[in-house]
Write a structure and sequence with these properties.
Blueprint lengths: L3 H9 L7 H5 L8 E5 L2 E4 L4 E4 L2 H4 L8 H14 L11 H13 L4 E7 L2 H18 L7 E5 L8 H6 L16 E4 L14 H19 L4 E6 L15 H11 L3 E5 L13 H5 L5 E4 L11 E6 H14 L12 H16 L2 H20 L5 E7 L2 E6 L15 H10 L3 E2 L1 E2 L5 E4 L7 H19 L1
Parallel strand pairs: 3-13, 5-6, 5-7, 7-8, 8-9
Antiparallel strand pairs: 1-2, 2-3, 4-10, 9-10, 11-12, 12-15, 14-15
Helix pairs in contact: 4-12, 5-12, 6-11, 8-9, 13-15, 14-15
The structure holds pyridoxal-5'-phosphate.
Amino acid sequence: KNTQLEDWDRENFFHPSTHLAEFARGNLAQRVITTASGCHIEDSAGNRLLDGFAGLYCVNVGYGRPEIADAIAAQARELAYYHAYVGHGTEASITLSKMILDRAPEGMSKVYFGLGGSDANETNVKLVWYYNNIRGLPEKKKIISRWRGYHGSGLMTGSLTGLEAFQKKFDLPLDRVLHTDAPYYFRRKDLDQSEADFVAQCVASLEELIAREGADTIAAFIGEPALGTGGLVPPPAGYWPAIQEVLDRHDILLIADEVVTGFGRLGSMFGSDHYGMRPDLITIAKGLTSAYAPLSGSIVGDKMWKVLEQGTDENGPIGHGWTYSAHPIGAAAGVANLKLIDELDLVSTAGKVGAYLKGALNDALGDHANVGDIRGEGLLCAVELVEDRDSRSFFDPKKGVGAAVNAALLSRGVISRAMPQGDILGFAPPFCLSESEADEIAGKLAEAVREVLG
Ligand code: PLP
């Protein structure tokens, strides 16, 4: 067997989010992905796998869409690149900005384009600081995030991310970052607590944090409408309206990180609309192009826009830009992707297939003694494993139960994601998932759970 690529890979390639030492020791499976179509990927060893996580929950329209590939090729031939500084644009980037705002929640004004979710959130924080400086509030700069929130891997965004691995040994978090409770009802401390009381507790601890630090030092609150990487957890009922009320009262901006939820994953175009958030900034990436090309955006609300405009009257051009802001190829992919989502009605499809998948997971595993929670909204679903259901005790993380089930599922040809904190199997497939593919995921997961846990 020719192992040239595998050898080069081991010798040269620094893989992100990878156990480097285990990789070097040859203990991690190397997989060279060669092609993909619909919900399936194929590798160089001839395996065909059902991708239950749409890459990194980003290939929302599914793999191999000729409409997007053709749009990218046509753009590359016509105009591969020009920058967007000092008022330049392209047909693709200008059209896409309009398409995004046509779909965005009410009260949004403009789109700033970036490359990925991390840089879009870096942009958001800089815009918030710029905004408060222009308003003459230089002390109002801290950003509140939640434990288990995921907002990227940059210096600021890695600080906002409330997961240990993204901070430990990196000297993060930076100053000006505060963390508050995750709205993770299943993991509440007191099992007898009602959902309403749990929400009240999240709100009270946010209020305490604001009182302790001083509202005049806090600029913004950032959150994913439904927690993603931190566990795939839809918020308890009433959470966002209650948080929004606190933020409004203290003049704290809301950044909705919709990198995962934007453009349909929850069965609504935006999670902000789904849960009654009124954000000042919305982060978009992944589903904007279904990952056919890198592109992200910060959607800026009216209130901030009016101030940002004034700022440039005082200070000249805004000193923030990337070479690849609004890259024409990413923008062309975005236009074709959003058109396809409309034509195939994929947003409502995601809601329907998501409900079917959750039902299938419940049928297959609902009464297993080690399945503590089956949750989801649209095509963002999770199965959380527990050692004991009645006492809701968790496995010792060192046992790696979630990773073992994930591996057992993979050996049956289905990809899930073992989420980083807890024994949580995540499913966020492309929106074109068929009911029989959903049944396959559920059936094979049940087999995998029984193989590992009996
Ligand atoms: N925000 C959220 C909610 C995400 O899930 C991610 C990535 O998974 C990011 C931001 C960072 O995006 P990127 O990896 O494109 O930088």
